[in-house]
Amino acid sequence: METHDPTGVYTLKEWLSDYTWFCQETHKYAPDSASMGREEFEAYFLRTRGNPSLANHCLERFVRAVSFLEANIRALDFGKAAVAGEGQFMVSKAVVITLYRFFVAIPDADIDVEVPLDQFLEQVKYELGL
């Protein structure tokens, strides 16, 4: 399997662009963003990357990050980090950057390893200057 250097393969600029796309897409499905299927993610990443191996590399990390975010949104619902409502949420750029830092460098073999929520929250608070 081909491996990638995460710092040169999936940049923060690309991550932010992908997150913007994700927000626009999920807004279409609101309040049920879970109805957005994996095939829509796959098509987007392939379209924006061109190279199937690179597209899959980015896709796996982004989907993992979004799943983590959706599972832990209530824990992030404080101050400037996030606001969670019924079926919708809004997060700060600090949260999106922290997702990038935690998920982009995950090696392929560890893609399913659980990210410790307490460490994630600590980094978000640091990003927010709290």
User: What is the number of helical segments per DSSP (H or I, 4+ residues)?
Assistant: 6
For the sheet with most strands, the description reads:
2 strands, antiparallel
User: CA-to-CA gap between the ends?
Assistant: 41 Å
Q: Which H/E pattern describes the elements?
A: HHHHEEHH
Cα-based radius of gyration, to the nearest Å: 14 Å
Shape: globular
Q: Helical proportion?
A: 55-70%
* Residues in β-strands, percent: under 5%
Give the domain tally: 1
Averaging pLDDT over every residue, what do you get? 83
Task: Say how many strands there are.
Answer: 2
- Low-pLDDT stretches are none
Largest sheet, order of strands side by side? 1-2
Q: Name the structural class.
A: mainly alpha
Describe this structure in words.
It is a single chain. This protein is mainly alpha-helical and 130 residues long. It has one domain (6-128). Helix content is 63%, strand content 5%. The protein has helices spanning 6-9, 12-29, 38-49, 52-76, 93-103, 117-128; strands at residues 82-84, 89-91. Strands 1-2 form a two-stranded antiparallel ribbon. A hairpin with a 4-residue loop joins strand 1 and strand 2. The model has no long low-confidence stretch (mean pLDDT 83).
Short note summarizing the structure:
The protein has 130 residues and is mainly alpha-helical. 63% of the residues lie in helices and 5% in strands.
Give the topology.
Layout: H1 6-9, H2 12-29, H3 38-49, H4 52-76, E1 82-84, E2 89-91, H5 93-103, H6 117-128
Antiparallel strand pairs: 1-2
Helix pairs in contact: 3-4, 4-5, 5-6
